[in-house]
């Protein structure tokens, strides 16, 4: 009991020590002194989480069972690190430039920020890692039992140990793994604690090794001799497994979530990788150096039937070296805890970024930027994920019952995670790798792994029915889980590794070749494959639409107020903006998205920025849509322009019409006063003279006659005026009846000239005519036409102010027929020209002879006849053109 | 009359000695893992079995010897590369 108590005390002290280390590291980091926290040595030591309790204890057991095969899982990773120039350098650069947070994030980012792929890889990682965590809990429990076996009745404390360890680990991880939501996802405290644990486990194993070789084996050469003499004395390996496991462990080293976490995500500087390239193989070499001696001496000294997996612990214990045994125990404890901590962090990052956050975003769709605090949601999601992952491991341990089944799960898990390799390597080396390819490869590989290795690993009849395993599903022998396509006799692990990787890679390549990647995929592909040529990431956003303030609010919730404000201010300064908010330029959005991606993953960050920016992610389709829109807008604006021109024209016309209306209104007033005046003048004289005739006695007969004829004349004038008005109104109302007849133009003109001349003493007007041209036959209302001509000739007679008045009547025969009346007077002023055809418009008051209705009547008549009458400017005098329509003229031919 | 000036920005056909050395170092860094793989696959050719098999002590010496060689080789290359790069950026 004392031993167990001591052990528990040591364990607790060690845990407290780790907490203190992590806490101190966080404090130091807070003060900004990260230099020594982030040294290449710490980076290299943190990689040692590759060596879990499974390898710490299990390597010796493996050496006892299969000789040197245990080495392969160290050789693979050593080669990967020695070959850092090929893969790791690129992976780390990509991780840094794209702010990758996990394996799932890497795959998702590379293939067009696809969340589907991220979820797939996350599931794979959870399925592959949970048994591994269970394995760690088992090893801690077993090592506890070694000490407690002497003191306790068997089975008494069993199980509780695992629970306590699991709870403690979850607590530690929650405290130090979710301390901050840094953009770069670095956990200083955790990394430091792991580095310390790495030193502890190496020291423990070396101490046991030195004790065994020099304390028990009797020196180096003696030990070597003992090895040669033992059951492991001769070189004996399965060649296929030797090469296959080396390859498998190399692949798994690149893909295991916890390794990726420390290798890429926690990487601080690329030069650290250079140090690790030789230092980590050295670490692995030292870790495996004493395994065979411990195994051989253990076989020699320990009683037959004791568990070789625990030789590291039981050997010193059996020799009475309690202190060494406790150190060894702490080494195994460290191996287990550091693995669980980092695995939980890596998995929780994946689960919260790729499963919880997208779900939360979808559920809280409209208000993601308004309601709730995303930062706290992310942290909560991550904490719950950590607890969930660790507890899942514990549950797995309880349900599987520990034992052999669990011990084999390490390599099974390796094969599972290695399924990510084709998509990962294809993604960073081959631009043609597409999302569909990655999805196909992962699905095939995952399915094949599950069917041929994972499910059978529980034993026949647990998940796969017994007859399936022995005879194939539905009796299809070639589909037997451990002998696909009838190839029997292979090692089950190699069989599964070979087939799953073959199907995975084949599917990946074929689907990639056959599919056409999305624009975003192609951009990301170029960014990943050519990461050394151009480090900035692809243009993803077009600015202008995003509201910087909304972005600020969102960024604050994720990065924390201080960091977000500093970020925005820095950007604003860089842009030279005056306020604290920068313009949402594409560069800025891109940078912001990357920062956010460091906290919540690329796909989620993309979605969040997209939500605020309004999904303005630029794809070729979007560009085409934008181009379409632009074309539509251009067309629309062209149409608008045309419309506005038309409007301008219409407005001009309206203005003209308005001016004319105004003039017409003035004219109407003038017309009213004119008509009253025109009626009044003759009436006045008629009344006056009729009163004289009535009231004055003794008028002479001559006077009576004179007055009576004045009255008569005025009455005639009145009648004529009224006739004219009536005529005009009839014409205007279109109620006129045309009296169509055949005739010759010359006769009509003769009659008009005679009538006009007969009016009064106007013989002075000389009328020049063209008798030949006038010989045109007409079919029209000849009386009305002559009325027009009479009017025009009379006007010329009245108004032509030349000394020798002359009127030219020019006839242009043809279609239409044109008759011009041109005098040699001073003509009509331009401003009066468009008014002369209106009623009561008279050019001058002085010469006012008529009521000003003549031309108005003329126009009405000509219009009725289907022709036109217009003033003809620029003829040297007043000139009127009468145009008679084609059919009249034709009919006249 | 003056002869045409030689073009200034012509890509050098031969790298300067410094960069040439650096590139060969990179090549060496690339080759090293393949060499390691080859050496570690050599045990596949060894005779096996309790009778005529290679002795385990020799196997241990060989395997860990290769390991040490890789660690040393990698460390030397990284150190040399770092020095070259420093010298080049320093100039």
From TrEMBL, chain A:
Residues 674-888 form the Histidine kinase domain. GO terms for molecular function: phosphorelay sensor kinase activity; transmembrane transporter activity. Its main location: membrane. Residues 626-660 form a coiled coil. It is found in: Membrane. It comes from the Bacteria. GO terms for cellular component: membrane. It catalyses: ATP + protein L-histidine = ADP + protein N-phospho-L-histidine. Keywords: Coiled coil, Kinase, Membrane, Phosphoprotein, Transferase, Transmembrane, Transmembrane helix, Two-component regulatory system. Its EC number is 2.7.13.3. SUPFAM superfamilies: ATPase domain of HSP90 chaperone/DNA topoisomerase II/histidine kinase (SSF55874), Homodimeric domain of signal transducing histidine kinase (SSF47384). The chain crosses the membrane at residues 6-30, 42-64, 70-88, 116-135, 161-178, 190-214, 242-260, 280-304, 324-356, 377-397, 409-430, 442-464. It is a multi-pass membrane protein. Belongs to the sodium:solute symporter (SSF) (TC 2.A.21) family. PANTHER family: HISTIDINE KINASE 1, TWO-COMPONENT HISTIDINE KINASE. This is histidine kinase. It comes from Salipiger marinus.
From TrEMBL, chain B:
The chain crosses the membrane at residues 28-47, 59-81. Keywords: Membrane, Transmembrane, Transmembrane helix. This is Uncharacterized protein. It comes from Salipiger marinus.
């Amino acid at each position: 009991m004392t031993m167990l108590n001591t052990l528990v005390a040591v364990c607790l002290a060690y845990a407290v020590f780790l907490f203190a280390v992590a806490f101190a590291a966080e404090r130091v980091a807070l003060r900004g002194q990260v230099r020594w926290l982030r040294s290449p040595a710490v980076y290299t030591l943190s990689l040692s989480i590759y060596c879990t309790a499974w390898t710490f204890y299990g390597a010796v057991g493996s050496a006892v069972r299969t000789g040197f095969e245990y080495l392969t899982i160290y050789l693979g990773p050593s080669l990967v690190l020695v070959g850092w120039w090929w893969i790791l350098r690129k992976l780390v650069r990509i991780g840094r430039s794209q702010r990758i947070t996990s394996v799932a994030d890497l795959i998702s980012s590379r293939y067009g920020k696809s969340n589907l792929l991220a979820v797939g890889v996350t599931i794979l990682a959870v399925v592959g890692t949970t048994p591994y965590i269970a394995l760690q809990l088992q090893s801690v429990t077993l090592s506890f039992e070694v000490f407690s076996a002497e003191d306790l009745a068997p089975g008494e404390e069993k199980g509780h140990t695992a629970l306590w360890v699991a709870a403690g680990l979850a607590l530690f991880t929650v405290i130090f793994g979710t301390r901050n939501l840094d953009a770069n996802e670095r956990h200083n405290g955790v990394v430091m604690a792991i580095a310390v644990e790495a030193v502890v486990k190496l020291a423990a194993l070396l101490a046991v090794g030195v004790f065994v070789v020099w304390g028990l084996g009797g020196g180096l050469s003696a030990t070597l001799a003992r090895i040669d003499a033992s059951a492991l004395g001769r070189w004996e390996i399965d060649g296929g497994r030797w090469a296959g496991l080396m390859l498998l462990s190399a692949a798994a080293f690149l893909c295991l979530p916890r390794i990726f976490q420390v290798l890429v995500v926690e990487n601080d500087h690329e030069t650290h990788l250079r140090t690790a390239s030789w230092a980590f193989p050295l670490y692995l070499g030292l870790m495996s150096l004493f395994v065979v001696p411990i195994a051989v001496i253990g076989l020699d000294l320990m009683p037959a039937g004791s568990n070789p997996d625990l030789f590291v612990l039981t050997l010193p214990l059996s020799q009475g070296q309690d202190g060494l045994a406790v150190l060894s125990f702490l080494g195994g404890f460290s191996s287990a805890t550091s693995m669980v901590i980092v695995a939980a962090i890596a998995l929780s990052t994946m689960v919260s970024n790729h499963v919880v956050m997208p779900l939360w975003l979808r559920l809280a769709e409209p208000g993601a930027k308004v309601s709730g605090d995303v930062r706290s949601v992310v942290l909560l999601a991550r904490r719950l994920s950590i607890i969930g992952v660790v507890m899942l491991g514990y549950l797995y341990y309880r349900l599987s019952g520990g034992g052999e089944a669990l011990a084999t799960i390490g390599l099974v898990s390796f094969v599972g995670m290695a399924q990510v390799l084709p998509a990962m390597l294809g993604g960073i080396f081959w631009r043609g790798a597409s999302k569909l390819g990655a999805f196909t490869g992962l699905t095939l590989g995952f399915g094949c792994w599950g069917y041929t290795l994972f499910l059978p690993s529980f034993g026949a009849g647990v998940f796969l029915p017994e007859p399936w395993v022995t005879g194939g599903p539905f009796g299809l022998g070639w589909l037997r889980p451990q002998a696909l396509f009838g190839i029997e006799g292979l090692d089950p692990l190699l069989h599964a590794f070979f087939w799953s990787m073959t199907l995975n890679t084949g599917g990946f390549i074929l689907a990639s070749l056959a599919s056409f990647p999305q624009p975003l995929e192609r951009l990301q592909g170029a960014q990943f494959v050519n990461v050394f040529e151009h480090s900035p990431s692809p243009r993803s956003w077009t600015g202008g639409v995003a509201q910087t303030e909304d972005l600020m609010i969102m960024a604050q919730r994720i990065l924390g107020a201080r960091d977000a404000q500093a970020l925005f201010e820095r950007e604003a300064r860089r842009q030279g903006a005056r306020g604290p908010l920068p313009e949402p330029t594409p560069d800025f959005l891109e940078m912001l998205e990357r920062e956010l991606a460091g906290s919540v993953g690329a796909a989620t960050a993309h979605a969040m920025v997209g939500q605020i920016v309004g999904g303005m992610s630029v794809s070729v389709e979007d560009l085409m849509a934008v181009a379409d829109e632009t074309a539509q807008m251009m067309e629309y604006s062209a149409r608008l322009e045309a419309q506005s021109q038309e409007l301008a024209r219409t407005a001009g016309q309206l203005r003209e019409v308005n001016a004319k209306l105004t003039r017409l209104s003035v004219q109407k007033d003038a017309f009213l006063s004119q008509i009253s005046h025109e009626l009044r003048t003759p009436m006045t004289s008629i009344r006056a003279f009729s009163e004289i005739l009535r009231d004055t006695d003794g008028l002479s007969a001559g006077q009576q006659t004179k007055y009576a004829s004045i009255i008569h004349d005025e009455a005639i004038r009145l009648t004529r005026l009224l006739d004219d008005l009536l005529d005009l109104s009839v014409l205007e109302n279109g109620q006129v009846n045309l009296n169509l007849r055949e005739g010759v133009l010359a006769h009509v003109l003769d009659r008009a000239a005679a009538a006009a001349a007969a009016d009064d003493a106007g013989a002075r007007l000389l009328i020049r005519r063209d008798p030949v041209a006038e010989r045109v036959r007409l079919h029209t209302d000849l009386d009305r036409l002559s009325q027009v001509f009479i009017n025009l000739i009379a006007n010329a007679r009245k108004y032509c102010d030349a000394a020798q008045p002359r009127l030219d009547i020019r006839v242009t025969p043809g279609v239409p027929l044109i008759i011009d009346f041109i005098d040699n007077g001073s003509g009509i002023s331009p401003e009066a020209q468009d008014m002369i055809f209106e009623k009561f418009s008279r050019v001058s008051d002085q010469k006012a002879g008529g009521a000003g209705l003549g031309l108005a009547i003329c126009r009405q008549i000509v219009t009725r006849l289907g022709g036109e009458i217009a003033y003809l400017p620029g003829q040297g005098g007043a000139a009127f053109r009468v145009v008679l329509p084609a059919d009249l003229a034709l009919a006249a031919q | 009359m003056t002869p045409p000036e030689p073009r200034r920005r012509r890509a050098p056909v031969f790298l300067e000695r410094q960069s040439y050395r650096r590139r060969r170092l990179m090549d060496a860094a690339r080759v090293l893992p393949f060499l390691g793989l080859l050496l570690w696959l050599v045990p596949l050719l060894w005779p096996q079995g309790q009778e005529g098999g290679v002795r385990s002590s020799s196997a241990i010496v060989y395997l860990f010897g290769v390991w040490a060689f890789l660690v040393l080789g990698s460390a030397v290359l990284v150190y040399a590369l770092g020095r070259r790069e420093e010298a080049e950026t320093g100039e």
